[in-house]
Every structure is written in structure tokens, then in C-alpha cells.
Write a structure and sequence with these properties.
The protein has 342 residues and is an alpha/beta fold. Helix content is 40%, strand content 15%. The structure holds NADP nicotinamide-adenine-dinucleotide phosphate and ligand G4F.
């Protein structure tokens, strides 16, 4: 049985990837942070108590800011494949917490690679690189487009990208960068713009909220479905040679269009409910992302399956279900139920 180690297993991508690898028969080990509240909601449905002989997913406490955790875990587990997804992944927050973001999102990758080198284990390493690295570079972007990072987050990802390439060359480690464009799902964190919109629009529909405050509506993103994108991560580590790949849908839409379509699906006019709040603007913005994933298609046979419309339908339906549950509980006399539903 192959063993995989996932950092960021409690995040959106970590949950889809853990599902995929368990389906493929892997033993899955995940790094989790100790928290005073539960942070495993996205993977609870996959968890079996480790006393259960059928358990194949195991969680280990650790943090990307502490290298001794990572060295000890890799030495003990000796995974065949490592998917490094853990990061402070919010671009706007990286302007508020630049040093922390540099430490976890940038140096965290170096710590993982050093853990591989120091333990001497034979493994394959996937790095969660990002289209944010392209920043101000005009679209379309592919593997040859120069990086022009526009945030501390993007700068930290650029550092990680190059350190992965360096360890591949210097130490012959099987390590590759997946340069993923934005990917969304019903499991997306609620402060990223797509989920913020689907959550708010469905709550507005059921009379649970009046307004939705957003920042820059003109930014354009190449939005895909996270479930499709984690398949590309796995494919990258099944190739004969390590390499770097763009993973994208090849379609770009504005935040305004996303909001318009979501409200439309609910029979509402977004203009009546969306207001602009300058606090959500970024000191420097990434105006337009549009990926060209021809290389991934040609070399690995990867193509996205879920369309933009299907993604919106999926997210709206899931959030409508959550809003309905909230409404039902409120109607039954319960209060303060919102944060207990997910
Ligand atoms: P996410 O939902 O924000 O998940 C981030 C994960 O990292 C969570 O499991 C989080 O743990 C963990 N983490 C954060 N700080 C950590 C630390 N100090 N030590 C250990 N773990 C830590 O992100 P995602 O959307 O799944 O994205 C996965 C990766 O792909 C990230 O590296 C992101 O930057 C990158 N990426 C994402 C996209 C996208 O569109 N989603 C596109 C390109 C690249 P908690 O649950 O405890 O917070
Ligand atoms: O949803 P976002 O916060 O995603 P962003 O900044 O593109 O970053 C995401 O995708 C990256 C890949 O390109 C990942 F690397 C990264 O980890 C993360 O997953 O914002 C999308 C756009 C931005 O232009 C932002 O300015 O939406 C705009 N926006 C407008 N109003 C807003 C809002 N973004 C957020 N989060 N909240 C708003 O109210």
C-alpha cells in the first residue's frame, strides 16, 4: 500500500485530495495544527478511529513553522508521496500578516524539503504553487510567463517555487510545482470571494442577511473546481520525471460576473444587494488571470471536467442547503445557529 503525507489536509484541497488518495487505496497521513476549536470539519467524514483495523487515514500534530515536527514525521512515516498544501493562503490577509505569511507559506516549503534531505527518504514532492505568482503579468499565463508577484503571499509562493526547482536540481529530489489557478467548491473557505458570494446570496434569499459587501468587482479570475484540480496534483507525482505544470480551465470571468450569475440563479438582482467596501480592496491587485494548461493536457492527459456554470450551480445548491438549515432552526426558536451549521 502506497503512503502519502499531506500538509494542509484540513483545507479545501487537502480534503478533496485525501478522498482521492483513499479511493485509490493509499494510506494517508495528514499534518494538523492543534486548535482550541475543531478544524477537521472537511475531513471528518473520512476519519476512522485508529483502533479500527480499516483505518487508513492518520492525523499528526505539527506546524510548518517548526522543522523538528516535520523531520520526525517524515522519518517515522516514510511516505512515498508528499503533497505540500499547507499555507497561510489568503492574499488580503498576507498584507496584514506579511512576516507570518513569509514564514509559513515561504519558509515552510524549505523546511519540508530540508526534512526530506535530512532524513534521506526516497519520496516524491508536490508543491502547491499559485497563479498569484504571475501577478501583474498580462494574460494568458503559461509555464514560460515571468512572475510579477503583487502581494507578500505571492512573493512567498515565488520563493517556494524556486526553492523546489533548486532542490530538484541540487539534490536530485523528485519535486514539482503545480501552478494552480483559482479553484473553488462548496468546501472553499468563506472569506474567499466565490464562497463569500454564494454564502451571502443564499442567506439573502432566505431573509437571513440584507447586504453583501465586496471589494474590487472588476478583477478577473480563471475559476475551476477543486475536485478536478487535485487529480492533476496526483498525476504530477505519477510521471517518469518531475516537472512544473500550469493547471487552469482557460476561461476567465470577473468577480462582478460571478456575483451576477449567482444572484440570477436565485432569481435576484445583484445590484440591489451588493455594496462596495474599500476595506476589501488590496494595496496592489492582480487584475486578470487566465491560464494555459496545454502542457498538462499534452503530457499528463489532464483536462478540467466541471464548467463555470456547473461550479456556480454546485456552490449555490450546497449553500442553499446550509441557509435552509439555518432558517429551519431559527423558525424553531433556536438562536446563534449560523456558525454551528457547517
Ligand atoms: P486553505 O483551505 O486555506 O487550506 C490551507 C491549509 O494549510 C489548512 O489545512 C491549514 O490548516 C493549513 N495551515 C495553515 N497554516 C499552517 C501551519 N502554520 N502549519 C500547518 N498547516 C497550516 O487552502 P486551499 O485552498 O486548500 O489551498 C491549498 C494550497 O494550494 C495552499 O498552499 C494555497 O496557497 C495553494 N493554492 C490554492 C489555490 C486555490 O484557488 N484554492 C490556488 C493556487 C494555490 P487549518 O485548517 O488549521 O487552518
Ligand atoms: O477569492 P480571492 O480572495 O482569491 P485570490 O486573491 O485570487 O487568491 C486565491 O487564489 C490564488 C490563486 O490565484 C491562491 F493562490 C490563493 O491561495 C487563493 O486561494 O479574491 C479573488 C478576487 C481578488 O481580485 C479580490 O480583490 O476577488 C476580489 N474581491 C473582491 N471583493 C474579493 C472581495 N476577494 C475577497 N476575498 N473578498 C472580497 O470581499
Amino acid at each position: 500500500m502506497k503512503k502519502a503525507f499531506i500538509t494542509g489536509i484540513t483545507g479545501q484541497d487537502g480534503a478533496y485530495l485525501a478522498e482521492l488518495l483513499l479511493d485509490k487505496g493509499y494510506e494517508v497521513h495528514g499534518l494538523i495544527r492543534r486548535s482550541s476549536t475543531f478544524n477537521t470539519e472537511r475531513i471528518d467524514h473520512l476519519y476512522k478511529d485508529f483502533h479500527d483495523p480499516e483505518a487508513r487515514m492518520f492525523l499528526h500534530y505539527g506546524d510548518l513553522s517548526v522543522s523538528s515536527h516535520l523531520i520526525k514525521l517524515l522519518y517515522d512515516i516514510r511516505p512515498d508521496e508528499i503533497y505540500h498544501l499547507g499555507a497561510q493562503s489568503h492574499v488580503r490577509v498576507s498584507f496584514d500578516m506579511p512576516e507570518y505569511t513569509g514564514d509559513v507559506t515561504g519558509l515552510g516549503t524549505l523546511r519540508m524539503l530540508e526534512a526530506i534531505r535530512k532524513t534521506g527518504i526516497n519520496t516524491r514532492f508536490y508543491q502547491a504553487s499559485s497563479s498569484e505568482m504571475f501577478g501583474a503579468a498580462p494574460p494568458p499565463q503559461d509555464e514560460t510567463t515571468p512572475f510579477e508577484p503583487q502581494s507578500p503571499y505571492a512573493a512567498a509562493k515565488v520563493y517556494s517555487y524556486y526553492v523546489v526547482k533548486n532542490y530538484r536540481k541540487a539534490y536530485n529530489i523528485f519535486a514539482g510545482n503545480g501552478i494552480l489557478f483559482n479553484h473553488e467548491s462548496p468546501r472553499r473557505g468563506e472569506t474567499f470571494v466565490t464562497r463569500k458570494i454564494t454564502r451571502a446570496a443564499t442567506r439573502i434569499k432566505l431573509g437571513l442577511q440584507d447586504k453583501l459587501y465586496l471589494g474590487n468587482l472588476e478583477a478577473k479570475r480563471d475559476w475551476g473546481f477543486a475536485g478536478d484540480f487535485v487529480e492533476a496534483m496526483w498525476l504530477m507525482l505519477q510521471q517518469d520525471k518531475p516537472d512544473d505544470y500550469i493547471i487552469a480551465t482557460g476561461e476567465s470571468h470577473s468577480v462582478r460576473e460571478f456575483a451576477e450569475k449567482v444572484f440570477q440563479k436565485l432569481g435576484l438582482d445583484y445590484k440591489k444587494y451588493v455594496a462596495i467596501d474599500k476595506r476589501y480592496f488590496r494595496p496592489t491587485e492582480v487584475d486578470a488571470l487566465l491560464g494555459d494548461s496545454t502542457k498538462a493536457q499534452r503530457k499528463m492527459g489532464w483536462t478540467p471536467k466541471v464548467t463555470f456554470k456547473q461550479l456556480i450551480d454546485m456552490m449555490v445548491e450546497a449553500d442553499l442547503e446550509l441557509a435552509n438549515r439555518e432558517r429551519t432552526l431559527l423558525n424553531a426558536g433556536y438562536r446563534n445557529v449560523k456558525n454551528r451549521l457547517i
